[in-house]
Hints:
Elements: H1 2-24, E1 63-66, H2 104-109, E2 137-142, E3 147-152, E4 159-163, E5 180-186, E6 189-195, E7 215-224, E8 227-235, E9 244-254
Parallel strand pairs: 4-5
Antiparallel strand pairs: 1-9, 2-3, 3-4, 5-6, 6-7, 7-8, 8-9
Amino acid sequence: MKKLAIGTIALGLVAGIAVYAQNAAPQQPAQGQARRPAPPPAKPAPRWPDGRISFSGSPTDVGNWEGPANASIFFNVVDGKKVTPASSLSTNKTVDEIPFQPGMRKLYDSRWDQAEDPHTRCKPSGGSRFWHTPYGIEIVDLPETNEVIFLHVGAPHSWRVAYLDGREHPKNMKPSWYGHTTAKWEGDTLVMDTVGFNNRFWLTREGVPTTEKLHLIEKLSRPNHDQLRYEATVDDPGAYTAAWTGGWNLRWSEGNEPFDYLCQENNRDPARMTGGGVADSNRSR
């Protein structure tokens, strides 16, 4: 019986390998059938008249940026040194690779319920949480005032500002949801430096924790017309034993424009809020 079983298993493995090889082999078009044309090359990223890269649309190129909001996002680089190639930006890095301070892993694990996400309760989405929010993100470049403004369409319907005039961070800042952001251009990449955060938001939708010691370095680039690359380095000695880096890509959503969205009156996620679908105003964390 054992020999028969082993023989049956071996035969099954051989058959499985044959099927796998057949499926893995490139499929050739049938005789007389035309080959599927290769996809067209990606359009280049637009530029302003002075040559700077543009993160915006135009009167003939309407749209904005959609982050991967409907799937679990996780930073995919954690060593604080390695720079991830654009082609390998992806999702679902294991939580075991995050260098948590004692107690912070337990806090992360306790945030399994998306109903607890401050974003769901119409609170501003600080740090990297800003970049995977539904209904699009508008980026407004204002060279005349040396500012770049980032506007949320959905959720808290809020915005943040990056200052490019060479100013320093204020001293003794009151902690806030978005902190204070200075920025500079490094070639076609916008590098943003932010401090002064409060600890009332989740860094990503999974509940990655931070403290008021968070120092966030974010990089934005546009490899082509339809892709925005977001990369962030998290330096928070209150929450982590070392700095760590990761990111993801956002897509250009053609035709997407801001619309009248007030989170308190148009919340599309009431089923996961307490109080029978009514936001609990006393819960802010």
